Amino acid sequence: MLVRRCAIVLVEPREHLAFDPQSLADGADGLRATLSLVALAPHLDDEVPVDTDDVAALAQIAPGAWSDLAGLYARHARATLDGLVEKGLLISDAAAHAAVRARDEAVRDLNWRGLSAVAHHFGRWSGVRSGEEAQRAGVSSLADLTARLGPPPPAVRECAAPGARIALERAPGGAFDDLLRRRATCRNFDAQALLPAATFATMLDRVFGAQATVDAAGATILKRNSPSGGALHPTEAYLIVQRVDGIAPGLYHYHALNHALEPLRSPDPSALAELASRSVAAQDYFANAPVLVALVTRFARTFWKYRNHAKAYRVVALDAGHLSQTLYLSATDLRLGAFVTGAINEVEIEAAFGLDPRTDGVLAICGFGARAASRTAVELDPLGRVWDAAGNLVRE
Ligand SMILES: Cc1cc2nc3c(=O)[nH]c(=O)nc-3n(C[C@H](O)[C@H](O)[C@H](O)COP(=O)(O)O)c2cc1C
Question: Does the domain at residues 176-369 carry the CATH identifier 3.40.50.1820?
Fold first, then answer.
């Protein structure tokens, strides 16, 4: 059997602290520390416990060239090497290991930077209910946070004495300033209202649609209303449509060149609502928006140019941030509410849309739709442009 090391693996030393009554009885701090090593390899679904023999073997077996396993037994314990093959950290050419080999090849072929691949893969959530966890930890409001953690660092950095600062004029005001000031994260959607089809189409066109294309040197480049690193626009819109007039509730992909919806699946209404809730980690004030959009990055598109590049993953995350701001402003202009959230269960979203996280990464979820007439969930509107003092929607 031939083997090679998997393309990317990071070994992390961990310390686990557990309550130990004996330590307390001995007059110590009551805690027992256990040290361990875990291997984080993005072609595997879970982290893998390893020991120092495993690490020594992994360090000495090349990821690029195939070696004969029987020949390696002369240098490393057989149990260590066989264990590494079973764990999927050594990739074999055997038919029995084809699935792991294919996942490793997907990572290899994509030109991932090792640290970025590990950060992306092991930052994903499944089954998290973020609000409830914050409540359990006693940190669900600003008052809870400051009571537990003390005040946060100051709101701004001060680099000069007040008298040394050069005062600047405020923006003159105008339609664009008004639009910016009305932008706020919506946590109060009208749970019944249908979004008109034309409004929905305008939103997708403005935020994700190709406004123009340039075909040059064998490549097609999109022009969108947001900037994108390398002009590559790797981020696609995968939609959970819940209430849009004339469009069957279900899962869709948006085709940015054709400005068209590609139907994927239509789960029954309760399954769709459940998926929406799971997607946003049970933040139900977001889950009932008429449209949720998963921002899904096709890594191959950006990593085609930025190969094994230290900045590439950061750049695609920044791209997603720009799209979300364009979505906020487009929604605000249409008198709609909008949100973005990073508290998402990527694993459930990937399963629903049939995405492999090694090739297509869910970076955030946005949503939009009509606001409710009154505010029940907290929003940050100190300018009073969205809600009046009584918590009612300000209509213009
Ligand atoms: C990257 C990102 C992630 C966010 N994630 C969440 C989230 O998980 N839950 C939430 O309620 N708001 C989330 N927000 C919204 C912020 O809480 C919101 O922008 C902030 O409170 C300021 O309010 P404003 O957007 O109304 O000005 C997120 C915003 C950004 C930019």
Answer: no
* Cα-to-centroid distance, 339 and ligand 1 (Å): 7
Nearest atom, ligand 1, residue 280 CA: 8
What spacing in Å lies between the alpha carbon of 89 and ligand 1's midpoint?
A: 38
pLDDT digits (tens, 9 = 90+) for 115-140: 999 999 999 999 999 988 878 888 88
Tracing tokens 């037994």 back to the chain, one arrives at: 73
Dist. CA 170–CA 50, nearest whole Å? 58
Write the DSSP assignment of 115-154 as a string of letters. HHHHHHHHT--SS--HHHHHHHTT-SSHHHHHHHH-SPSP
Each domain of the chain, given as residue ranges in start order, spans: 2-109, 176-369
Query: How big is the chain, counted in residues?
Result: 396
Centre of ligand 1 to C-alpha 338, Å, is 10
Please list the alpha-helical segments (H only) found in 183-333: 197-208, 269-279, 284-287, 299-305, 312-333
Write out residues with Cβ below 6 Å of ligand 1: 184-185, 283, 340-343, 379-380
Mean pLDDT score of the chain, rounded to an integer? 96
Q: Point out which residues pair with 145 in neighbouring strands.
A: none
